[in-house]
Amino acid sequence: MRRFLRGSTIPVLLVALWEVLSRTGILPMDTTSRPSLVVVAGYEGMADGSILIATWQTIEAAMFGFLMATVIGVLCGVVLGLSRKLEAIVGPSVDALRPIPAVALIPLSLLLFGFGLNLEAAVVAFACVWPVLLVTIAAVHGIEPRLLELARVLEMPFATRMRKIILPAALGRITVGLRVAVSISLVVAVTVEIVLNPRGLGYSMMMAQQTLKPELMYAQLLWLGALGWALNAALQKAVSCWPGMNELGGQS
Amino acid sequence: MAADKAGSAVSVRGVSMAFTTGAPVLADVSFEVREGEFFCIVGPSGCGKTTLLRLLAGLLKPTGGDIDFYGAPIAGPGRDRAIVFQDYSKALLPWRTVAGNISLSLEACNVPEEERAGRINALLAKMNLQRAAKQYPSALSGGMQQRVQIARCLAQQPKLLLMDEPFGALDAMTRQTLQDEVARLAVEQKTTVVFITHDLEEAIYLGDRVIALGTNPGRIVEMVEVGIPRPRNQLLTREDSRFLAHRHHLFGLLQGH
After folding, report:
1. A-chain residues within 8 Å CB-CB of B77?
2. Among A47, A244, B179, B185, fewest CB within 10 Å belongs to which?
3. SS3 B150
4. Is the dihedral of CA B46, B50, B53, B59 positive or negative?
């Protein structure tokens, strides 16, 4: 608690300074607004549900894209990780596609899907799939060869081998990729909304800015920061609930 | 040597092995392992003894010669041949408890769920692991981890138990205890055991027969029938004149290579 209090000294002072400078007219109201107004705007946005709806739209797109990326990335990653031959064939294509900035695909995605959820999720998925794929390949390469031999000696069918040996053994490292991807998903979703998709927090921030309501823009910005933090924490929590994960974390 | 009265479990004929890179690892190795026999292979590091064991497990295919298991050529790994790896800490599933690790073999052998608990408890008792049942491998000592691996191998009820320097990384006291336990289990279960070690005394102490491998390339330089009755004793057997005679004989041969 004392650490928390000490840590919040600087933010509290800065906010107070902001409020004072704004009230004395040193900071221009039309660009920097004022903390007290930001709190009010945030409260009103919550109360009338507009921020919550926009939040849901952003989260929906980010998670949809993230899940697609996870499924595709983990599946392909495991297959490529197990077969050096396949990796040699597919690897160069992956290396060629990966450097394309995901946001550069927004026009293409608009052409394919039109405005809406799918446009946004597709761009998010493209951005998120690479860290998941690469980390999964590395995770599978990192599995103890003894465990794979054990699976062979026990004559496990492929699905069983996957479920009982490969995925649990690789999970610790795959999570690292998933955490990177979760942060990316939110960044890309908001970016797509700011650039052109008329939905979600990114779009409502743009609207607030263009209709000269900077206090609402600041409120949404702070809310977005809290959201990113919460997403990361939720994923970490979900992972730590996996049975035996602590033992796994100890060794990998 | 011709087929024995006990029947042959493993027949290795003229086996050679070379990896794509480098010199041959094994050259013209031939031997038979009798059913129920405790068969030890001893040799210095680099003589290809681990390669030989992996060939018997079916994890590798020989580049020359034939290996038969109960009359049929070995096509690949199988549940009828269990393998105890030397690096026990890497061969256990860290996310499963001791009981869970043993259960893995039973699951793979399609043992129905209601039977598993009973079988696991029997194996835990056999390997003195009852108190560790709910612990994770990372919490156990090396000796205990190796017991878990042996228990898991016994759970698959193998016809052949392959052991790759299983006690090489353990301290002397633990090693002796486990040697006696494995010797007792092999007699009780009538399991055929192929046991690899670089410790000559361990090979003579445990084996019904011992073959010594030389290096560059790996080949058989000698085979001895130990001929010391069981049960053996850590103190008395090691002072037995036959034990000492084998030791002197093989020591000289292995030094020469």
Report:
1. 149, 152-153, 155
2. A47
3. helix
4. negative
B82-116: b (≥16 Cβ within 10 Å) or e: bbbbbbbbebbbbbbbbbbbbbbbbbbeebeeeeb
Between A and B, how many CB-CB pairs are < 8 A?
A: 62
Between CA B77 and CA A152 the distance in angstroms is 6
Residue A32 lies in a domain: no
Instruction: Confirm if A134 and A72 have CB atoms less than 8 A apart.
Output: no
**pLDDT above 80 for A249:** no
Which residue type does B213 have?
L
Chain B residues within 8 A of A164 when measuring between CB atoms: 104, 107
DSSP state of A108: H
CATH of the domain at A143: 1.10.3720.10
CA distance A144 to chain B (A): 6
- How many domains would you assign to chain A? 1
Q: What is the pTM of this model?
A: 0.80
A43: which residues sit within 8 A by CB, 6+ positions away? Answer: none
User: Which residues in chain B are closer than 8 Å to A160, comparing Cβ atoms?
Assistant: 108
**Residue A207, domain member (yes or no):** yes
The predicted structure's pLDDT at residue A219: 94
Q: Is residue A139 part of a domain?
A: yes
3-state secondary structure of A1: coil
Domain region containing A139: 38-251
Contact: B79, A154; criterion CB under 8 Å? yes
Within its chain, how far is the Cα of A100 from the centroid?
Answer: 18
∠ CA(B130), CA(A161), CA(B56), 5° rounding? 80
Q: What pLDDT digit, counting tens, does each position of A162-200 carry?
A: 999 999 999 888 988 998 899 899 999 999 999 999 999
ipTM value for the complex: 0.89
Number of other CB atoms surrounding residue A214 within 10 Å: 20
Q: Are A165 and B94 within 8 A, CB to CB?
A: no
In tens digits, chain B (257 residues) has pLDDT values of 444 456 899 999 999 999 887 788 898 999 999 999 999 999 988 888 999 999 999 999 999 999 999 999 999 999 999 999 999 999 999 999 999 999 999 999 999 999 999 999 999 998 989 999 999 999 999 999 999 999 999 999 999 999 999 998 889 999 999 999 999 999 988 899 999 999 999 999 999 999 999 888 888 888 999 989 888 999 899 999 999 999 999 888 887 65
Residue A12 included in any domain: no
Q: Which residues pair with residue B225 across a beta bridge?
A: B209
